[in-house]
Design a protein that fits this description.
Cytochrome c-type protein
Length: 460
């Protein structure tokens, strides 16, 4: 209050001075403020000046703080955000700020988010989280996406996929249901943003780990959602369907399941086998629908051509004998086959990964030469790939009745090439337990009958 000067008439009574000493600072300032002569225009101008300076300091400082906390560099200042910041800088969205996606438009939403974010400061001080995950409350909304992107798009940027974006949005389907990995490559679901590996997240490594299959919409998400729609469901109504699962919640569920399964190991193992078999059967059913071999009366067709505009069946596949004679082509061009026939693309769930193994694999890929024909690799692929096993798990028509086939199949297994075809489904020797080899689709192996060996072995 010194700007208004000292009061000329001072109290000289000792008792009054003693009482003033007992009065608090705020009350004394308030008394001085009340004693100011507001009829004096000079004092009113002084008050206006002080108010303006105060507003500039308060609002200017507040704006500066908001601008600072809205910048990506502020997010990168925390060690635990290294994976998120590294993937952001390596993504196609690196030219915008974090808040343009993570905070809904509007000043009120901005302030509300800042208040809620105080808990992040608390966690940073009291104990860094083991893993950063996106909660259901923090899911990116369509409002954020539509600030830059138009909903009037019927195909993807590549021109291949026919996707009615407007139709999806009008059904209240969140953009992140399909585009969850566009910036951070689903690192939380992959389990590669935990505390123990944060030191490996450099810009160079981020570019290696930002795989296209995690950045682009996952075909498995489309298939899973379409199948649920065909069953009368609307899965996107549940927010949890659109964000990566929280590892703590997943672990809690696993712990609960482990408690229930205590003392029932044998029955649990049987249930797991049954679940896996049901899952494989479901995948194979969808694959057969996709390639047009199994038609169903559904709301959304699961055939490839329903969504893919440029997908064409290769000319080699149109040959009459392709189904029975494609093995040779598979051996020679397996790398091309798996571009389409790779069942991992058909699954919505993202498997857990190890960041060190991924980095080593990337180094090997850069050093590795072009694919060389490898019968063992093709055999394992035919057994594990759901595309292949959709047909290879069934008994071939050419095998006829067992009693006739057993006595006459030798003529079909004379050459090494003919035997190679047999080994896709059958093992030569009795499979050893825990050998690490891929399990054959049938438990019938050659030495089950040929216990004395084979002619080729005896002539060597």
């Amino acid at each position: 209050m010194a700007i208004w000067g000292k009061k000329k008439n001072k109290e000289t009574d000792p008792e009054t001075r003693e009482n003033k000493k007992k009065v608090g600072l705020i009350r004394r300032l308030w008394q001085k403020f009340r004693n100011i002569d507001w009829k004096n225009p000079v004092n009113r101008w002084k008050l206006l000046f002080v108010s303006l300076v105060g507003c500039i300091v308060v609002f200017g400082g507040g704006y500066g703080v908001l601008s600072l906390t809205n910048s990506p560099s502020f997010c990168s200042s925390c060690h635990e955000m290294a994976p998120e910041y590294s993937t952001f800088t390596a993504s196609a969205h690196s030219n915008i700020s974090c808040v343009q996606c993570h905070i809904k438009p509007g000043f009120t939403n901005m302030i509300t988010h800042k208040m809620k974010s105080m808990k992040e400061v608390y966690y940073h001080v009291t104990g860094i989280p083991e893993q950063i995950v996106q909660t259901e409350e923090e899911a990116v909304s369509n409002e954020n996406c539509l600030q830059c992107h138009s909903k009037n798009r019927l195909v993807t940027a590549s021109g291949d996929l026919k996707v009615n974006h407007k139709g999806h949005i009008e059904k209240d389907i969140p953009c992140i249901t399909c585009h969850a990995g566009v910036v951070h490559a689903k690192i939380a679901a992959r389990g590669i943003n935990t505390e123990e590996v944060r030191g490996h997240w450099t810009k160079e490594n981020a570019e290696k780990l930002m795989e296209e299959k995690y950045l682009r919409p996952n075909m498995g998400s489309c298939i899973d959602c379409h199948e649920k729609v065909n069953n009368g469901e609307e899965p996107w109504k549940e927010v949890a369907y659109n964000v990566p699962p929280n590892p703590e919640e997943v672990q809690h569920k696993l712990d609960e399941q482990a408690k229930k399964a205590s003392g029932e190991a044998a029955s649990t193992e049987t249930k797991e086998d049954e679940t896996a078999a049901a899952h494989d059967e479901k995948n194979q059913e969808i694959i057969l629908q996709a390639i047009g071999k199994q038609k169903k009366d559904v709301k959304i067709s699961m055939e490839c051509k329903t969504c893919h505009k440029q997908t064409e069946i290769p000319k080699t596949h149109q040959a009459a004998d392709w189904s029975g004679n494609h093995g040779g082509t598979a051996v020679q061009q397996l790398d091309k086959c798996v571009n389409c026939h790779q069942d991992s693309k058909w699954a919505r769930e993202i498997p857990k990964e190890d960041i060190m193994s991924l980095l080593k694999m990337k180094e090997q890929e850069t050093k590795a030469s072009k694919y060389t024909p490898n019968l063992t690799v093709v055999k394992d692929q035919a057994r594990t790939n759901k595309f292949c096993s959709a047909c290879h798990s069934d008994r071939p028509k050419g095998h006829g009745d067992s009693n006739q086939w057993l006595t006459s199949h030798a003529a079909n297994a004379k050459t090494n090439d003919q035997k190679a075809e047999c080994f896709v489904c059958h093992d030569r020797d009795k499979p050893k337990a825990d050998s690490g080899n891929v399990k054959a689709p049938t438990d019938v192996y050659c030495q089950y009958c040929h216990r004395t060996g084979f002619k080729d072995d005896k002539t060597k």
